[in-house]
Specification:
Length: 169
């Protein structure tokens, strides 16, 4: 009898695990997409660097209507140019209407001849339901100068994001 009771407890525990629906993992990655129309200013910020500040508005999955704030540093040293493209680092914050944010840092290339830029980014966190978020993806930027040091761009972000804070809400 004691042997049967001892076997019943693990069997009961296994039955509970199999019948109770599992909660989504806080770190689960879901698809992420955003498109932003932005305006930017660009100016030299060192002997071999150009700094770009951009702001924009758009739409993003999991955020809805967003505002964007980005800063880009382009390495203009001719020794670092590859196939007509210069290395760049981009730091971006996307903010939802409710104030939740996603922050990301990307590294890639900006190409003067084609007026575009490509970055691979990592999500470094956020606020609200995206506090502690992670994920990664790529960013594509098609930009046009409309005057000396100013312009417009369409930016697309595609990748994944986790919303670790969403389960605590």
């Amino acid at each position: 009898m004691r042997d049967r009771a001892w076997l019943t407890v693990p069997a009961l525990a296994l039955a509970l695990v199999l019948t109770v629906p599992a909660l989504a993992s806080a770190g689960s990655l879901v698809p992420f997409h955003a498109t932003v129309s932005e305006t930017f200013t660009a100016a030299p910020c060192g002997p071999w660097a150009r700094c770009i500040n951009a702001v924009g508005t758009g739409q993003a999955t999991h955020l809805g209507a967003i505002t964007e704030s980005a800063s880009v540093v382009v390495d203009t040293n001719p020794a670092d140019v590859v196939n007509g493209c210069s290395p760049e680092t981009r730091t971006t914050t996307l903010t939802a209407a409710n104030g939740d944010t996603i922050t990301m840092v990307g590294n890639g290339w900006t190409c003067a001849a084609t007026s575009d830029a490509h970055d691979d980014y990592g999500i470094t966190g956020g606020t609200g339901r995206f506090q502690g978020a992670g994920g990664s993806g790529n960013e594509y930027n098609a930009h046009t100068f409309t005057g000396p040091g100013v312009g417009v761009a369409t930016v697309t972000y595609d990748g994944t994001v986790s919303s670790v804070g969403s389960l605590g809400s």
